[in-house]
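--- STAGE predict ---
source: upstream dedup step, 1 unique chain passed
mode: sequence only
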Amino acid sequence: MNFVAIKMLVGDRAKYLGILIGLTFSSFLITEQMAIFTGLMTRTFGFITDTSIADVWVMDPKVQFVDDIKPMQDTQLYRIRGVDGVEWAVPLYKGLLKAKLESGTFQTVNMIGLDDATLIGGPSKMIQGKLEDLRQSEGVIVDIVGATGKLAKPPLSPGGERIPINIGDTLEINDHRATVVGTCVVTRTFQSQPVVYTTYSRATIFAPRERKLLSFILVKAKQNEDIHALTRRIRKVTGLAAYSRDEFKQLTVNYFMKYTGIPVNFGIAVLLGFVVGIAIAGQTFYNFTLDNLRHFGTLKAMGTTNAKLLGMIILQAMIVGGIGYGIGVGAATLFGYMVKGTELAFRLPWQILAITGLAMAFICILSAVISIRKVMKLEPAIVFKT
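--- STAGE serialize ---
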């Protein structure tokens, strides 16, 4: 009977392809939009991902996410170092500053100031130069995307390609000269601004003068120290906010989920893909069942039970659903590969594939249930009507 069901499914190629196209488009849209949403959310805490050496992030209690900088007094660093269970604690500066390029144009950069003695928190992958080169006079390290993009020099001739900023080139940051001593690779961030690393003391010189300039304190816990117990102890002793790396990531994601329209926008797109799948696949599959009522009536007249007929229709739905799911997910994966390295965020973990699979299974089962009602009420005598 399963073979008969498959023959009936592929017999009407127009309707078969119509169902397949609808399910493929639905699968592609759901997978692609969720992958872009996940990619965007991952970028919101990209800087935390890069600074993975720290177990605990300490900050002002009113900080809501990683880019919400509320500076602290430098003396807080010594208080943190005195907390029991802290192996080491180093300062970190983070802020958006205006950089004047050699061409005379201005570009906002994400300035990161690392501890002068240890350079903890610096980029893990260097393309040119070494992290230690930051100790050179006026030294800064620029991420490769910014070096070849927004910070690149104008082309030599009109219409030509821009020239990437390189070692030895200079920037002017808040009327202070900065010399590029290296380029690095960093995780793309939500703001997509060029990332510039320097030492903490130099970053505080570049930054506008304020009474407080300490953005974060990076803390390493002692061996076998419970991270969550340490964060509670830091909060109790200093009154500052302290989060583990994963907690700080979650805090950042929660802010964007709650206070931005990103979840709603992508949720509507995913819902649209779901509705399209139900509308196209359900209607086409229902019409397909109506066109084959005489065949189902013949099978009923031969003694086939309603349960068996239901199984045949579900089998037909799952076959087209499985093929549509595979093609749609494959197309979404290909799309993600094509946009790799661009401004478009795309991340496809296995959970998205599972969610898309469940959505497609629901669409197929719902389509089958809608179609089976006609078959259940069908009288076998219909096959003898002229």
